[in-house]
Design a protein that fits this description.
6 helices, 93 residues, single chain, mainly alpha
Length: 93
């Protein structure tokens, strides 16, 4: 579903006020931000990777560095990212 279609659907079902809440949310701001700002958000909090639609390997590695559990929120992590998460998780125990 395109973002414009989502907007129309939310407004039709829940009203304009609900869409405005979504637009003002941190998650939405990360979702629509340029890649550099998305990377900065992930560096600050690895769980922000969940808000990024087009995740890069670099973003995923920063998220893993912050917390290996962030892998649950990744789309198609590379073998390198998976290995990093496993090494990070082992070092915690």
């Amino acid at each position: 579903m395109k973002l414009s279609e989502l907007k129309e659907t939310v407004i039709a079902i829940r009203g304009k006020e609900e869409w405005e809440k979504i637009e003002n949310s941190e998650e939405y701001k990360i979702y629509i931000a340029p890649e550099e700002e998305q990377l900065k958000a992930v560096k600050e909090n690895g769980y922000n990777i969940e808000c990024v639609y087009s995740q890069t390997e670099k973003m995923q590695k920063y998220a893993i560095y912050r917390d290996a559990i962030c892998m649950d929120y990744m789309k198609n992590p590379s073998d390198s990212v998976i290995s990093s998460a496993l090494r990070s998780y082992r070092s915690i125990k």
